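Study this fold:
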Amino acid sequence: MESSDQHKNQKDFPWPKSTGEDKFYALRLVQTSHRLKRFTRWLQLFAVCVVLFLFLPWQQNIRGNGRVIALDPAERPQTVPAIIAGTISRWHVQEGQFVKAGDTLLELHEVKDKYMDPAMLQRLEEQLQAKKSSLGAYSSKIEALTQQIQALEKGKILKLEQAQNKLRQANMKVSIDSASLEAIKVDAQIAKSQWERMKVLYEKQLEPLVKLEERQNKFQSSLAKKNEGENKLALSKNEWLNAQLEVTSILADYQDKISKSYSELSSAQASQFDAQGTVAKLENELSGTRVRFGYYVIRAPQDGYVVKALKAGVGEQLKEGESICTIMPDNPTLAVEIYLRAMDVPLVSKGREVRLQFDGWPAIQVSGWPLVAIGTFGGKVHVIDYVNSAGGLYRVLVKMDKSHDEQWPSQLRVGSGVYAWALLDNVPVIYEIWRQLNGFPPALNQVPPSDAEKEAEVKGKSGDKSDKKGEEE
């Protein structure tokens, strides 16, 4: 009976067999089951794996969103503007059509009253020719006035020389008359003295009356000559004054004539300058009108596809500078622009590897282990903006890394969305977890080189290569 109960208990409690303890019921109750032991071993193995995992290398990265663009600004989508205002006359292309540079996109009709005259160019040319003729007339008038002024200057010189000669003659005559008058005065004084002495002698009855009368007549004659000399001197002085006044009159007369000629010359020059300005204005207007007539036909600025017509229909009016369509250049060199936070930008440098996930291409990406990623594509940092964009983010341009086997999909289009990982240095997983929990930025083993240092390094490498080639030669 006991053996049957024992056998039954063994079925109810499937304990592991042991040597000696199986016959004790209490020991059988406290023994650990095989399932629990197996679970414990699995937990220990998992803990060991977790510990090992925490010390595995993890490649830090910086994440950012962006889009596909053309690397060359000339290859980016371009809107074609209407240079002048007008109404659409005829479309020559359709959306999605490939056009070459210079192909006609559409034609415009004029809307401004000023340019609606079909003979406007001819009329402007006639006005320009008339103004040029008047400009020639002004040039001839200026030349004639210049010659007239020169003639007046020469005439003034001749007249002044003639008047000054006359003035010198009058001056000499005044000098002669003055000397003659002085001589006459001396003679009159001598005659007076002789007459007075003769009068004294006559009164003493030493000389006869006849001689006294002779002396008196001689004295009276000298006085008459003195008056005549004084009148002659006064007349000479008047002639000298008249000659001096004539010189002044000639100067004033010729100065008035020359000033008048200069005034007419200035007026003719002003009219000439005004005509020159009018000619330049008409030439500018004529040239601008010719150029404007050329803008009635809007042409493609470069090879590409007509992506979107922003104005449709015939007769629709366009304003100056308004866009009519967008042209996407053919086969652009693609790049990716991503936006990073300001705290992450100092960690990125030119040449850093970037992993890219494009919209429409499924991918499996473990950010810390890029080698196990599936469906991502490689790239390298090409440009880092020096100023931030909207929202305080910095733009980074990434171009395709040709050293990798996977090339970017040929079906990529400009504007497609991109999710990017800029790869940094390797750290243990436990450090990455600690960094993420504390919100610290990624760590670098060394300071990233600046753009100037990068350029110097590239120049140094190129110089070393050229030196090696020279030594080999």
Notes: The two ends are 108 Å apart (CA to CA).
